[in-house]
Amino acid sequence: MKIPLVWLKDYLDIDKTPKEIAESFTALGLMLEKPIENNVLELEHRFDRSDWLSVIGCARDLSAIEKKELKLPQRHTEKGKDGGGVEIKVECPKVVNRFNTRVFRGIKVAKSPKWLSERLELYGIPSINNVVDITNFVMVEYGQPMHAQDLSKFDAREIVIRMAKKGEEITTLDGTKIILDPSVFILAQNDKPITIGGIVGGKETAITESTTDIILDAGNYDQSLVRKTARKYKIHNETVLRYDKFLHPAGTQLALERAAYLILELAEGEYYENFDYYPKKSALNVSKIRLDRIMKISGIEFSISAVKMTLESFGYRLLEESAEELTVEVPYFRTDFSVEDDIVSDILRVYNFENIPNAKINTAPPKDLTPEILKFEEKIRDSLIKLGLHEHITNPLVASDINDFKQIRLENSQNSEQDALRTNMYDTLFPIINTYAKHKIFEAGIFEVGKIYLKEGDKFEDLKEVRVVEVIYEKNSNLREKSKYIQSLLFGLFHELDINNINIKKHDDKNSIYQGSLLLGEIRFNSFSLFTENLLCALKNNIKVVDEFINTSEEDLSLILEIGKSAGDIINFVNNFDDRIIGLEILDEYEDSTIGLGKKAITFRLKFVNEKGITEIKESLIRGLEDKFGIKIRK
Amino acid sequence: MELQDKIDKIKNAFFEDIKTFEKSTDFDALYLKYFSKTKGEVTNLVKELPKLKDEGRKTYGPIINELMENLKKQIEGLKANYKNTLQNDPFIDLTLPANPKKTGFLHPATQVIREINDFFRYYGYSVCDGPEIETADFNFRRLNLPDNHPATDLQDTLFIMQPEVLLRTHTSSVESRILTQYGPPIRAVIPGKCYRNETGNKSNNSYFYQYQGVVVDEGITVQNLKETITLMLRFLFGNETEIRCRYKYYPEVSPGLGFDIKCTFCKGVGCDVCKGRGWLEMGGSGMIHYNTLKMCGIDPEIYTGFAFGMGLDRMVMSKFNISDVRKLYSGRVVYV
């Protein structure tokens, strides 16, 4: 909202510098949007206070904090003559709360006086002629949009407010042709659209230099429909800016009275009453304001007289008073009001939040709610850092892929490269390897701890967020070397996290990582991904007896295996063979002429608890391996 | 066996051992072989002394003592000798730097999150998290933002199923969840990803990190909020940091407060970076709205609370000198 200081001073005697005025506005909640220029303050609007889209509204709050009197402008409050003669028919009563009109005859359209054109131009609205300028001026002054039309352009003496028919057309004031549909409401005369309701007027009935008779209207409409329509046609103007907020129907009366005063002053003519469509009167809000509530929110004791003074300067009307509380009527323009605390806010705004002291919380800290998974994921990060990997965070938003039936897509993304959620983390993380390569780093290990998003059905409950850690390792080397390294990272991580009894199963092209029947993730030749929630379960499943004095013995075994056959099941078999086998370490994997073509040897070291019967276990293990897998064992 | 024989035997054995140990560095094993308290061979000799008659003790005492001193001296000598060899090895040059053994790096965002988490953990806050795919209920309605309210314009929402299922636009959605789930007293912080429907530019991304805090208890006031914000900002930007609180509307709080630090570029004079304000906006906060508490099942006449939130990305960018927010999450920042 732009506030030309010369305009602001029409309502308030203030001799502070523009910077000081900006500081007072800031304390009130109206912070500068940009540096001050030409003695115009541009203040940030937060969509709550529709009266802060008016100069008077801003002046009123300033008057409260500066303890200065607010001087309201002159209005023409006397009734006009009977016989306006334009009938108003509202066919869409759900949309129109009020449609308030006046008629003027015999006016003189001319240039605006300097004080008027200057104020509008400082605000940023070009001056056109006295009548149009007055409607714009009053809109910015009171925050209530208004609209003047040339009555001589009307074929019928009526305005019908109705939903548009499909295909109806209107040419707006700036010459744009718009094709309407039934989701939009319009003002029509002789069954022709003359205005898009709450949005923009049409060219046909616009005021010109030869205009003598006009109808002036100020409406109050369903703000959500104005919002939707404006967005649909991408029309953003001063009218929409105000009509898509919550305005009170009472504002139309004041605005018309003010405009009537100015028209009679500047354009002369005669003034007639006309229809005021206002079927359901909107009552004003009434609220209590308790001193102990103010205390509860601010920790500060206020006197009832101080509260009364502040509220009156904001325009609240006192209804009842006791030692402990007031009952007040909330002014019509405060459509932001919903609870007593909003009135507390008004009192504290004038007190100024800067003047409220600081105080420590004096209750004991409550119990810790931090979920275990969050702590565990930090541990995963630390473990991977120790293994020399760098953490990255990548964008979970990706381009949609129609072949990915598990993908969750966004309905309204403005960016076609980011209109879906990732279903795996490899694809968003892998491109980072190229960045390393550009920096001439050809060996890089990276990881991300985050989420992937899967659609398992059409309901909200079927949209799953899965916690994942993805690790990628790349190096200029052959696949065997790379895959050995990624395996050592995987088992390094398990070692760091103290997760045991891992086995890897190959089915089809996938190598899945399990602990028992618990799926932990998947390993590929250059990467692996793990479900962190399942890892946490795996950690809890760890049954590990720690005994310092455990006495162990070791035994090396060599298996001869066909190349291409996966060893995962064999390792799993050995690991689960007997509780007294407490460790398995792969020592070597090799092929040579002594083993035979198409075969390889894997040497591993078993660690046993030293107990009686170990020899038997070893023997039956070897028998078991030979029987179950048909493989040769070299001792 | 006569004691003298034993002494001679030990002497001989030690002489042999020295030959083999000469090239080894395992001096401790050698020491233990002779002087271990339980099994050391010389120790065993000493243990035999009390069994001798007075005369024997007088004879062998000094001999064994001398043996002990002698052997220990020889072991020390070996050690010193070994050290000398090391220092004299012409191939060892400890002045020549080597490639460091490298560990990895945490992402800048993780580092900053941890730093702030640590601060709040110290003050008894939990660290919480919630879903990114949210309902309009938790993201808007429970936060006092009814459908079609003009303030929904403050956040351009990315929808999965309009108008009910969306990507959370702020971490406040987690606030409404934990208020609903746990009830007071609560002290929690929520670092997390949020999403807005924006085409990315240098300082805006369609996804970003927010850091949220929430406290609900009996007797919580604006004064506690101001103290918390002050401590946090001084922790982040230094003890000398000047801080300003002002009223600012946010739907989920009433009253709402914005907090600023004095502009680091113009020192408060007013410049383009701070939009002429002289202050840099750090985040938003306020007393949790009466209706929000009620909708989350908490009695607002008994409990009060505050919430605050701030964008993390700009903080991370300034801390790590990153000029473009998109770099932060596209992997264009690498660790070399």
UniProtKB/TrEMBL annotation, chain A:
One of its GO terms (biological process) is phenylalanyl-tRNA aminoacylation. Its cofactor is Mg(2+). GO terms for molecular function: ATP binding; magnesium ion binding; phenylalanine-tRNA ligase activity; RNA binding. Keywords: Aminoacyl-tRNA synthetase, ATP-binding, Ligase, Magnesium, Metal-binding, Nucleotide-binding, Protein biosynthesis. Its EC number is 6.1.1.20. One of its GO terms (cellular component) is phenylalanine-tRNA ligase complex. InterPro entries: aa-tRNA-synth_II/BPL/LPL, B3/B4_tRNA-bd, DNA-bd_dom_put_sf, Fdx_antiC-bd, Fdx_antiC-bd_sf, Phe-tRNA-ligase_IIc_bsu, Phe-tRNA_synthase-like_B3/B4, PheRS_beta_core. Residues 282-358 form the B5 domain. It comes from the Bacteria. This is phenylalanine--tRNA ligase. It comes from candidate division WWE3 bacterium RIFCSPLOWO2_12_FULL_36_10.
TrEMBL record, chain B:
Its EC number is 6.1.1.20. GO terms for molecular function: ATP binding; phenylalanine-tRNA ligase activity; tRNA binding. Residues 110-317 form the Aminoacyl-transfer RNA synthetases class-II family profile domain. One of its GO terms (cellular component) is cytoplasm. It comes from candidate division WWE3 bacterium RIFCSPLOWO2_12_FULL_36_10. The keyword Ligase applies. PROSITE patterns: AA_TRNA_LIGASE_II. It catalyses: tRNA(Phe) + L-phenylalanine + ATP = L-phenylalanyl-tRNA(Phe) + AMP + diphosphate + H(+). This is phenylalanine--tRNA ligase. Pfam families: Phe_tRNA-synt_N, tRNA-synt_2d. One of its GO terms (biological process) is phenylalanyl-tRNA aminoacylation. PANTHER family: PHENYLALANINE--TRNA LIGASE, MITOCHONDRIAL, PHENYLALANYL-TRNA SYNTHETASE. It comes from the Bacteria. Keywords: Aminoacyl-tRNA synthetase, ATP-binding, Ligase, Nucleotide-binding, Protein biosynthesis.
